[in-house]
Write a structure and sequence with these properties.
The chain is α+β, with helices and mostly antiparallel strands and 126 residues long. Helices cover 33% and strands 33% of the residues.
Length: 126
């Protein structure tokens, strides 16, 4: 059985997923600034946000609804793939107490020259 090597950007993906689970507002805000540049973007079929203020509002809204109120956690579902400045990975939202995923999807992180996510495009599974 072969073992897949960890991608060099696995840490960025882990930090990106962790920011959605972060309970502490100050740590969440700091993590957003580490993951995205000031004009960073996040797009999904139902949202488009740009800049730190909008990113923070978007992530806080999701955290409040699904993590704080409903008891879910987001996690990386499979090892990220990367090429030409783009990372692709699958994620899932699972009950903190265990059990099957409530939702899942694929995200693409478009990397800037500084290694941060210039833009993230999220494709939730139907």
């Amino acid at each position: 059985m072969s073992r897949r090597a960890e991608t060099p950007h696995r840490d960025l993906v882990e930090r990106y997923v962790a920011v959605w689970n972060e309970d502490d507002v100050g740590r969440r805000r700091a993590a957003i600034r580490e993951i995205w540049p000031e004009d960073g973007e996040h797009a999904s079929p139902s949202y488009y946000v740009r800049g730190y203020e909008q990113l923070e509002e978007r992530i806080t809204r999701t955290h409040t609804r699904w993590v704080a109120a409903e008891g879910y956690r987001f996690r990386v579902r499979e090892e990220p793939a990367q090429h030409h400045g783009v990372l692709k990975f699958r994620w899932e939202m699972v009950p903190q107490s265990g059990g099957a995923a409530r939702s899942a999807g694929t995200d693409f992180l478009i990397l800037g020259d500084d290694g941060r996510a210039r833009a993230v495009y999220q494709f939730p599974d139907a």
